Sequence to fold (460 residues):
Amino acid sequence: MFINRGTTKSRETPGPILDLSEYRRRQSESSFTKIARTSVTTGGTQITESDGNLWPTPKGKPGGDYGSEFYTLKKEVLTTKLPFSSVLVDFRNQTIGLPSSAFYRGDGPMIANCFDCHTSATGVPGQLKRPIKMLFPPDLSSSRTSLNTKGAIAIAACAPTNQIANAASAIGEALQDVPNIPGIKLWESRLHALTAVAGVADEFLNYVFGIAPTINDIQSFLKGVDKVDRLVDQFIRDSGRVVRRRFVFPKEKSTETEVIANRWSPAGVWKTDPGTTRGDLWPTVSYALPGYQTIRERTVEREMWFSGAFTYHLPSGYDAHSKTDRRKLMARLLGAEPDLNTLWQLTPWSWAVDWFTDAGSFVSNLTSHIHYGTVLRYGYIMETTTVTDTYSAGVQDSVPIPGLGWTLPQPYPRVSPVSLRTTVKKRIQANPFGFGLSWDGLSTVQQAIVAALGITRVVR
Fold:
């Protein structure tokens, strides 16, 4: 099986019937009598491997990947109706023991040779092998390894930016706007000094040279704190949100044409001697038929696309510092013009040093998780590959067997083209960290992340 688990089903695909009948009428007879008939079923087959899908997702079920891998190979005949031909020949020779002065008629489609034929000394070149079977195009779909590579390319092309890396960078830049720790530690001593001189110095001078600079310094710090906090809050709010993406690769199409060696058209014609032909579907009528080269035009089309849902995990320890006291302080300081007494009541300022330390640990924690910044809730790479072979008759390659008295008036019957197609559809599944990785191979950290996000491997 192509997929890892599931069931395999098969069916036959319908196709036209190659029905050939041969009749004879002797000179003394008034009507034709059927003397031979060949009937060949030209249908194909389809094989499907699937694990089934729970769709729609049952209500109340936890978030998980309810899809599965999938594979199907379908062989079919695209020429649904084979054209009818009626060939009437006049035989006037007794050298091969057939009744003289008899008319032979062959009724049935004359199509290009798309059947399995002998091509070596094991049989007459061009003669149909038994049991008769059509040569459907091969499976030219991508391997699992190739699909995994394409899946990785698609993820790189359409995945949302690494939110953890972006947050670490933005918060690190914001922290540069916050006054350094030594300056924060001096605030309390500066406030003590200002209080000592407040009773003797001119109030205007106290404000201009002491209180105002200290307030400006503190407000600058709090603005930086506010900027960092907003980034953190946004990062926390977005954790676990799903971003769906689809990426379509350019459609591929190629066509090549070749003359098939040792195969002549119409179907059933084969060579007996150099330059002469006879057939093995119409034993007698085919003595009067010419042989044509068989041309095969092969068209390969490939469509590939990715569909997935991305999210990111919020590791523990991102909000270790207290927000409540900090927010109250910011509201009082930034919401009104503070005086020295207000600032004094808000001491001690050790919380600012603690906050700064927590913020540094915060960025460090983010940085350590950048590698796991994007996780797939589900991800699939899908491919449809179709190979279409169209067989047609080329230039005339041989003539009816001479000297036997077979007369077939020209123009010779038209040899109709016939098209066969093989379609392969594949879908392979990624785990939360990409394609080509097994669930059993996840590290302890990766297992913890998918557990925190509630991502499960749903096995039915």
